[in-house]
Design brief:
about 550 residues, alpha/beta, Conserved hypothetical protein from pyrococcus furiosus pfu- 392566-001, ParB domain, 4 domains, flat, disordered N terminus, disordered C terminus
């Protein structure tokens, strides 16, 4: 900042009517409650810290101290102490921005806008801001990134509907992906009337799993600019975490942030490999729509994989059999992996059954006095045996497919049964909560105490905190703090309901073998009539008792 000089006198007392706010003040939002609190303090003790001003015609422009000025107006003060400085427009902007950046109550988005205004001046850079503000380089970059937020997210951030942690995570993404990440900041559970904000760590995990692409695992060359000429090489691309480590200091390894560009390079790489190797087998793992299938691609498992991979895809593999071919996985989890496959279903080298059958049924050798009819009959018999073996193999494959389909059907039945059990247990939990009495009797209290003793100490508080916190969820508070705050805010009649939720939330899942079913015990104690009616509707069993088994030591 340039050297400043005092005008007339460094410190004076001026009437409030001679002061006017600056149009370049970075602070745009003022909390009325905090202003009122400050005004009460000014009315009692007066203004201790002078307001910094500069001459402007017959009046004085406020350089620093707009909050104190507004609070003094609320307190109906007549005059206030000021410090008068002769500052240029550039010097005024610098003082305002640096003074506001050092205050804790300035909104990060306003701070970001202020930094950008300084960077628009010729003499300023990020290093200059670091020196003048005392902030770290990563802090400056994180604030500047907030200006890249799409309007929907920027508005939510300025209205404090999301935290700075959420905003920073989203701001680092390309604009095309920010809306999707913003949607995953919220979740609406069954007891919510509106979606509540998830912790920033949940959003970070979703971004890592869905939007970040590890460049170390890319099947293409990161130094090749010709794969996608419009984007150039990955090593010089700004749309990756390794380009600005100050902004992505929490991201491990080098991650691509531009999924469409990444996919374009992958497809271009595959096109080159397929064009250069006419005998290349293209393999797809997993399912995708038919329109997305590459022409000529086969599903993994259609050909037998030879365990020795092709180390150098440019070299012809040492074929262990005539049907061996190089293969490239072009879709699925192992995309870009090279294999060697055998394309012969009846290969004598790689199919032990076929090898054994051919060993057991070799082509009979001709005898010295064999006639032409006998030779033809011998060859016909050999071909018939080959045809019979092929038919047997086809039947075996069909039987295997039928067995696989049956197994999938059974697995789906088991999944539906589990879902049905989960739904029933959730219904039981809701019945217990609705049947909460004002005071527990001995049986009810015993059931709750037994459930509390067997709670998982590592997870029950976190799960319940997510449920009860709703829209007020604060990532900076621990689960214990959230639950304690919730308990303090409950009315007397709500305490027993909360106690039930606290004791039983961790027992809503299906109990493992040899575990006590505490939810059934509680249902028998709190809602036995409702449970009996439900059981009669769903099952012919009578006098159903809650499941009780010995707990493991």
């Amino acid at each position: 900042m340039h050297t400043t000089t005092a005008v007339d006198s460094g410190y004076k007392t001026l009437p409030l009517t001679m002061l006017e706010e600056s149009t370049t003040n970075p602070r745009r939002t003022f909390d009325l409650a905090k202003l009122t609190e400050l005004a009460q303090s000014l009315a009692t003790h007066g203004l201790i810290q002078p307001i910094t001003v500069r001459p402007k015609g017959e009046t004085f422009e406020i350089v620093a101290g707009a909050r104190r000025f507004r609070a003094a107006q609320i307190a109906e003060l007549i005059d206030v102490p000021v410090r008068i400085l002769a500052l240029s427009d550039e010097e005024t902007l610098e003082v305002q921005i640096i003074e506001n950046s050092q205050r804790q109550d300035v909104h990060p988005y306003e701070e970001a806008s202020a930094y950008q205004r300084l960077l628009d001046l010729p003499a300023y850079s990020v290093d200059t801001l670091v020196q003048k503000t005392g902030r770290s380089q990563s802090h400056i970059y994180a604030r500047l990134a907030l200006l890249q937020l799409i309007p929907e997210v920027a508005t939510a951030f300025q209205e404090n509907r999301i935290t700075a942690s959420h905003a920073n995570l989203i701001a680092r993404l390309p604009t095309a992906q920010q809306a999707s990440a913003f949607e995953h900041c919220w979740r609406k559970d069954y007891q919510d009337t509106e979606a509540h904000l998830l912790p920033a760590k949940n959003v970070s995990a979703w971004i890592q799993a869905n939007l970040y692409l590890p460049l170390a695992a890319a099947p293409f060359s990161r130094e090749d600019p010709s794969l996608y000429p419009a984007a150039g090489a990955c090593t010089t691309c700004p749309r990756r975490s390794g380009f600005n480590t100050s902004l992505f200091c929490d991201v491990q390894e080098d991650q691509c942030l531009d999924a469409p560009c990444y996919q374009t390079k992958v497809e271009s790489h595959f096109d080159r490999e397929i064009a250069s190797r006419p005998n290349l087998v293209q393999i797809e793992e997993g399912w995708r729509p038919d329109k997305d299938h590459r022409e000529g691609a086969v599903h993994r498992g259609e050909f037998r994989e030879i365990e020795t991979p092709v180390e150098n895809p440019d070299a012809e593999p040492v074929a262990p059999c005539e049907a061996a071919r190089p293969a490239l996985i072009i879709h699925g989890r192992n995309r870009g992996t090279w294999l060697t496959v055998c394309t012969d279903d009846r290969c004598p080298v790689h199919d032990p059954r076929q090898s054994k059958e051919r060993e057991e049924r070799p082509l009979p050798q001709p005898t010295e006095d064999e006639t032409e009819e006998q030779t033809a009959a011998r060859k016909a018999d050999y071909e018939q045996r080959k045809a019979d073996a092929l038919a047997a193999e086809v039947r075996r494959q069909e039987e295997q497919r039928a067995a696989d389909e049956l197994e999938e059907t059974e697995a789906e039945k088991r999944r539906l049964q589990i879902e049905k059990r989960k739904a029933k247990r959730e219904a039981s939990f809701q019945r217990i909560v609705k049947a909460a009495p004002p005071v527990f009797n001995a049986a009810q209290l015993r059931a709750l105490l037994r459930a509390l003793v067997n709670l998982d100490p590592y997870s029950f508080a976190d799960d319940l905190a997510v449920e009860v916190n709703g829209d007020a969820q604060d990532d900076r508070r621990s689960a214990d703090e959230v639950l304690t705050t919730a308990i303090d805010g409950l009315g007397d009649v709500e305490l027993t309901t909360f106690a039930i939720r606290l004791a039983l939330s961790g027992h809503r899942g299906i109990p493992r073998e040899n575990e006590i079913d505490h939810l059934s015990e509680a249902e028998a104690a709190f809602a036995p009539k409702l449970a009996a009616l439900t059981l009669m509707k769903g099952s012919p069993k009578k006098n159903a008792q809650p499941t009780q088994t010995k707990r493991k030591a």
